């Protein structure tokens, strides 16, 4: 590790209602008055998760019970370059209390409500607005009519991120389906990502585009769309997605799938190795079921992407 980079453990304390905790830096410290996620420097010999537990006990007086590794981002301030190891903390004992002169506030990704926020934390708010489950369309097996009925049911039950991926349809068929899906998804306040080229996604008024690995590697700059993600299968592809500044990636296959039964799988340990210290939210794909979400979090995923089990 570069000794000039200061390693930091940062906590996204998540309440059951989706809010998270921010802290305002007290007078006398660098960037006094700015807001950030709680945490602090990792001491020599400490693992990031150990520093996280220690810092939250010292700063907030709480005992961490459950924390999941999430994103790692490097940011250069005027006074230092920091490597921020973010953890999503979902269970703790005690009521967070300011013990070092800071001010605390509970916030939401869509409306932070406090300012100014330290610039290193801006991308974290965007990542927090991504749901934990992505549903991939399955018209090829279900047919258009059945899929649209199941889509409505899934949206009514809380699914908030859909990727429309139908390679077997003609352009005209795909456009007709996309318009129906866009209307349904937006009526429920959810987000639709279209697996196509950026121009098609924009024309069909989707919220963003999802690129396959070949499209990803051919890009030299991020598409000019609100949301952009990509499918990855290797370290090279993951690194390129990060350089482009995409919003998320889908990585797999993690487990065997019905659609690709002979494909080489990463397994959970292989998945964890690839996403360790990665800066973008990662969805695990390949054989995913709802019961795999907890395990995905444990191995560093933002969430899971499901095909058949989403519907």
UniProtKB/TrEMBL annotation:
Q: What is its EC number?
A: 3.6.1.55
Q: Which residues form the Nudix hydrolase domain?
A: 4-132
Domain of life of the source: Bacteria
Catalysed reaction, written as an equation = 8-oxo-dGTP + H2O = 8-oxo-dGMP + diphosphate + H(+); 8-oxo-GTP + H2O = 8-oxo-GMP + diphosphate + H(+)
Main EC class the enzyme belongs to: hydrolase
- Name the UniProt key words of this record, in alphabetical order: DNA damage, DNA repair, DNA replication, Hydrolase, Magnesium, Metal-binding, Mutator protein
Give the protein's cofactors. Mg(2+)
Cited PROSITE patterns:
NUDIX (PS51462), NUDIX_BOX (PS00893)
GO molecular function terms attached to this record? hydrolase activity
Which family does the entry's similarity section mention?
A: Belongs to the Nudix hydrolase family.
- NCBIfam families reported for this sequence: PRK08999.1 (NF006530)
Task: Please give the name of this protein.
Answer: 8-oxo-dGTP diphosphatase
Q: What is the source species?
A: Thiobacter aerophilum
Organism phylogeny = Bacteria, Pseudomonadati, Pseudomonadota, Betaproteobacteria, Burkholderiales
């Amino acid at each position: 590790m570069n000794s000039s980079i200061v390693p930091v453990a940062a906590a996204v304390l998540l309440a059951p209602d989706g809010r998270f905790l921010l802290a305002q830096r007290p007078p006398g410290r660098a960037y006094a008055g700015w807001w950030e996620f709680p945490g602090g420097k990792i001491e020599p010999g400490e693992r990031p998760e150990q520093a996280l537990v220690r810092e939250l006990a010292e700063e907030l007086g709480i005992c961490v019970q459950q924390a999941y590794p999430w994103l790692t981002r490097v940011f250069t301030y005027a006074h230092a370059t920091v490597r921020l190891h973010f953890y999503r903390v979902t269970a703790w004992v005690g009521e967070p209390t300011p013990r070092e002169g800071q001010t605390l506030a509970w916030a939401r990704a869509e409306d932070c409500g406090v300012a100014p926020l330290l610039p290193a934390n801006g991308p974290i708010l965007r990542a927090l607005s991504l749901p934990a489950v992505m549903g991939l369309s399955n018209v090829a097996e279900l047919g258009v009519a059945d899929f649209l009925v199941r889509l409505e049911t899934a949206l009514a039950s809380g699914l908030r991120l859909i990727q429309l991926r139908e390679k077997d349809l003609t352009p005209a068929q795909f456009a007709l389906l996309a318009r129906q899906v866009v209307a349904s998804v937006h009526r429920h306040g959810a987000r639709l990502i279209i697996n196509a080229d950026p121009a098609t996604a924009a024309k069909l008024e989707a919220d963003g585009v999802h690129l396959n690995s070949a499209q990803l590697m051919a890009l030299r700059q991020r598409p000019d769309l609100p949301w952009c993600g990509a499918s990855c299968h290797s370290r090279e592809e993951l690194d390129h997605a990060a350089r482009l500044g995409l919003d998320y990636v889908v990585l797999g296959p993690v487990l065997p799938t019905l659609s690709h039964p002979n494909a080489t799988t990463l397994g959970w340990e292989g998945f964890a190795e690839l996403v360790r210290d990665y800066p973008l939210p990662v969805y695990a794909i390949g054989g995913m079921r709802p019961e795999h979400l907890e395990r995905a979090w444990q191995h560093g995923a933002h969430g899971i992407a499901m095909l058949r089990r989403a519907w």
